[in-house]
Amino acid sequence: MKKKIVEMITSSKHQQISYADYISTALYDTECGYYMKAREKVGRQGDFITTSNIGNIYGQLVARWYYNQVSNGVAPANVCEMGAGTGRFAHAFLEEWKLLTNDPITYYVLETSPFHQELLQKGIGDEEIKIIDSLNKLKGFRGMMFSNELYDALPVHVIEKKNSTLYEVMITVENDDFKEVLVPLTNNRVRSYVTEFMRDLGEHKRVEVPVAMVDFIREVSSVIDSGIILSVDYGYTDSEWEEPARSQGSLRGYLRHQMITNLLANPGEMDITSHVQWDPFIKIGEKYDLTLEQFMRQDEFFLEIGILDLLKDHYDPNPFSEQSKRNRAIRSLITPGGMSSHFQVVIQSKNVSNKFSI
Q1: CATH number for the domain running over 34-155+211-348
Q2: pLDDT by residue (tens digit) across 40-59?
Q3: Does pTM top 0.85 for this prediction?
């Protein structure tokens, strides 16, 4: 991977590439990108953990919630999960759906990683899911489009303000090592995003510019004819971004559950992530006809859609039983200060005629 990125840099016009190009290659290169490699990435044996992999509760809850939306005529029984990873959420969702109704559901999975495609086919099977590698194959989609920790993994540009001038942080190579270099900002799309969505940046403040997020939201809107967009991720509002602790942005890596600050080391071997900018996310959605319905923390969302009912209905006094383990997983998702409190849920709609309610 390092050799490939070095070649990208040395063959470029100014012998430097943007962070967006670096991240895109390190994560998504078809031959040696992190997400494309045939190895575990999520869970104890991987590099990070997500709430969708804490038991089957997440998928079961969302299945129940969406079943109510379908029953109320808000959207039809079609789902597209964008970036399914191991498939644990999809499996839990579909198993719960079978318990709720005999009515069929069509479940698409947008997944570009051959490794994860294979996991999905082995774990769930082609008869229950339809794997696609491009959203363009869903033109005219009606139903729910769901993502969990998708936007945080999209490539971002990085800018910094110095002496009242905006610079883009570029990457070059020196003595066979990658090195950052500041160049005056010339990328028009980056500059347009800064002008439209970012407040005045302080001196020496560094921040990510998610141009790829804009493109993905636009693509989602272009393929969905009507329905619900449920996006779960971690991020900050504008006011949170202004806090001193965010002055150097949020870009970081994860390797074997350890946070890595030097993203230029070991490209292709670790996850690279940044926090979602929620206020621009919502405004961009509105620009592309996606109406904001709800914005809340994930633990609040779980409580709203009935996680306590699962806890109440399945009590078991035996602390070593599978049900007790499941109940502990439920509690871990709603404990104050727990994992779910660090995630946010955005629910948007498009061309929904019946009254939407959470």
Answers
A1: 3.40.50.12710
A2: 545 455 544 556 556 688 99
A3: yes
DSSP annotation of 48: B
pLDDT in tens, 76-128: 999 999 987 778 899 999 999 999 999 999 999 998 887 777 777 777 866 78
The residues with which 56 forms a beta bridge, in sequence order, are: none
Separation CA 347–CA 271 (nearest Å)? 26
Cβ 58 vs Cβ 210: under 8 Å: no
DSSP letters, 61-91, are: HHHHHHHHHHHTTSS-SEEEEE--TTSHHHH
Q: Rounded to the nearest 10 degrees, what angle do helices 322-334 and 57-71 cross at?
A: 70
Q: What are phi and psi of 255, to 5 degrees?
A: -140, 120
